[in-house]
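Now for today's protein:

——
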Amino acid sequence: MKFSQQLSIKEVLLIILVILSIHFTEFKIGVVKLSEIILLFLPPFLYSRKINKWCLYFYFLFSLWLGVSLFFNIYREFPPLKGLSILKKPYLITIGRFFELIACINLVALIIFYFKNKSHEKLIQFVERIVFISFILIIINSLIYVLVINGIISNSDLVYITFSNDYRLKGGFVEGGPYGLMLSFVFVLSFWYKSRLNIIIRLFIIFNIIFFAKSKAGMLLLVIWGVIYYYKTVYRKIKSLSFIVLLIGGVIAIFAFAKLANVYIEHIQNMEKYVSERPNDTSLIMGRIAGSHIAPKMVLENPIFGIGLGNYPLQRNLKKYRSFIPESPPGKTDAHGLGGIFQLMVDGGIFILFSFILILIYLIKKTMVLRNGMEIFLFVFPCFFLTGVQIYFLYPWFLLGIIISLNEKADSKRRFSS
């Protein structure tokens, strides 16, 4: 990567915005992320001429989701909760989540708009810069983690101690799991990074996910990406192996997956016992483990249109859903942590989930026709939401913006050559 190239003011500002969107998801003014505020003010500049059709599809879907949610909110029960910000009250939380989704689409549109008249190579160079800056930030976070666990500095908001007195690096996220997923995202981006440093970057990221963030979701995403990226090579290798080797490999893979999932399974099976022993442990009564108990009940009761956009933090406190799980602590809101795809099902029901999937299928088909290699990155896009990333987190949408932008360049080149 040529760092000697002079960057324009616009590109520097875009780099800052993207880094904010990827690494500083908790950098907020009140309860609103700074990156989202910036992105919500961009539409007059982004859409002065033409709206990209893929952005338009998502705009229409999320607007429909908002309308359906507000309509059915009239008939929903919302428990009285104390200490919540006004933006997290019924109806307002729905509108707030809608604007977060709009910010995500605006990020996609911004990438498409900025690189519309720029070369393929210019966009790849931009991604390389994002990877390099991310690598520097990961190094800084790692150094702080080492200083904390060795007692050189007493405390840091980047590191937290679990209920079992285990240190985990959270890197500015709410905890180690989401941070590990963000690291896996940078790992995926590094496959555009053409430098001798890429092997070092990837190994360092893997080390951070496993030993510092201790993120099971991040590890799982790395495995998924490996399967997607290397499936052709792996398939050819597998064909040449004997049945015994395949059997042994399959057993090892199953054992590794079972070991990875064992912590969650054990907690879910003994949920009531643990809650009675640790009723004030927020990592237990809030988040993924509690969500695995609460969210399925919501889906069964509201299968078609869901519980409404953004309503999970409020609805989860209803006795019929949480049963023996305590209410959220005063002033705090919960997220089930099961990822954006499950969030589409919980908050939007079958209707919104299937609509979202149809848009992705259409985009995948279009991408495969272009034969520009972007399909592997498009396949991993929903995997972030499957492994725990919320649908309104910005950084997976940055990846989608890159994919669509490169698709349009490939499509334009194909039409020109024909």
Q: What stands out?
A: The radius of gyration is 22 Å. The first helix runs from residue 9 to 23. Residues 199 and 234 are 20 Å apart (CA to CA).
